[in-house]
Amino acid sequence: METNSEPRPKRRRTTQEFQNAVTGRATAREKSRYKYMDLSWIPATSVEVEWLFSKMKCMLGYLRKSMSKKTLEVILFLRMNWDLVTNEITTKAVRNAREEDIVDEEECDVIE
Asked: Where does the record place the region Disordered (predicted)?
């Protein structure tokens, strides 16, 4: 048996294989890193944050746990920016919602 003192050369990747491997790892890291929204820019002890959590606690009781994120976001926005809401805007929103309900009912009738 011959003993070779030289180590075996490592398998070399092509440039494309190397780029694919690096890109794959970077993509995986980014996905895990951005799993949650970055809120580090909000000071944790600010009065606004405490006020926001207090408002949410009042709005989202145990009976409203099934409320969608979109609905909660809209309600919270309206509550915090109530000074921007006018009767005209409210009337338009109600009309649009009623029209959408009518269209939805018509679509259900067509399907059945």
From this structure: 1-24
Q: Is residue 104 part of a domain?
A: no
What is the mean pLDDT of the segment spanning 68-74? 81
Q: Residue 47's domain spans which residues? A: 13-99
Provide the residue count of the chain.
112
Residue 107 lies in a domain: no
Q: What is the pLDDT of residue 76?
A: 81
Distance CA 18, CA 22 (A): 6
Supply the pTM of this predicted model.
Answer: 0.36
The answer as to whether 25 is a domain residue is: yes
Instruction: Return d(Cα 53, Cα 32) in angstroms, integer.
Output: 26
Nearest Cα neighbor of 79 from 101, 51, 103 is: 51
Dump pLDDT digits (tens) for 73-112: 888 888 878 888 888 888 898 888 888 877 766 666 555 5
- As for how many domains the chain has, the answer is 1
